[in-house]
Amino acid sequence: MDVNDLLVTRDTPVGYELQPLKKKAAIQLMGSRLWGRFNPNHWDPVYAGATGLKAPIQTGEMSSAYIAEMCVNHFGAAMFTGARVVCKYIASTLANEVITTHGVVREKIAKGDGFRFVVDVWADNEEGEKKTVGFVEVDVDVTGDRA
Amino acid sequence: MSTDQLRPMSPVQIAQTRDFIDGLEAGAATYWDMVEIGDELSRELTISPELGILYADGVEDFNPWYEGWRMNSWTIPGESPFGGAIVPPLLVSHFVLSVQFDHTRPFAIGSIHTNHDSEILAPIPVGATVRITTRATDKYVKRERRYVRHAVTVEDVANGTLYFRETRDILSL
User: Fold this and answer.
1) pTM (2 decimals)?
2) CA quadruple B63, A109, B120, B162: dihedral positive or negative?
3) Are A78 and A43 in contact (CB under 8 A)?
4) Which residue of A22, A38, B154, B159 shows the fewest CB atoms closer than 10 Å?
5) A10-29 residues touching B, CB cutoff 8 A
6) Per the structure, how many domains does chain A have?
7) What residues make up the domain containing A102?
């Protein structure tokens, strides 16, 4: 695969599937100081069990970051100039689960000289159970109206 | 469940972990009790090259655009389509948590971030100092669970550039 071919263009059709990313919910990363150390639900089995969880859960923001990484792969610099990322955490990502990100272009809305792409995004585990769902909006080739 | 169920730990590490968690729980209040609708809080954050790397490494995102620090070279200008290194698109969202309540008081561990609606308006250069401002816009109960909603803005302290806007909900204990 040539990663330079991933970039979405104005000709990319509705229905186009973004290339997925896979990440493991590694307990060492979930409990790192920046990500989850301040909340033991994210890394301590004993505390998580006491609060009713099957296992420590990954902070949802890690899933959002995975989805954002996938979108940067496909939209490049456009992800930093007027993009929108909407995510809802509908199920907990448990320690050691392998998470896969997905994205499908749902709509292309004419905007200025180009299009505002609307992409349905989600992240699921190896059994296909959705953990995070949402959508992303990104301008492609919009050089006119950005409002 | 045991402390060392998911990773190897010696008795010393287990004891240190339990002490750390006991400390987190001491004197904590819930989000619900710490926040009133209309509360507005603001803090400045300098996004150093090392902070950018720390965030990106945690989610295994190795895009070179985010590298304002590299082993052996250390601090570098970096390269991106916008010139120097920039921060990952949702980095500032992760730090909102540290602004949306009185961070000088212990908060109740166990709260859960449930959703976000984020607008990435402009690239944030690595090294920028941003002001994160949060305003509590709602507290509501849904299916017997308590939620707190915040509206967020992130702007450059030096030049006022509005980088980021967000609405987010926290499920409180």
Assistant:
1) 0.95
2) positive
3) no
4) B159
5) 23, 27-29
6) 1
7) 3-140
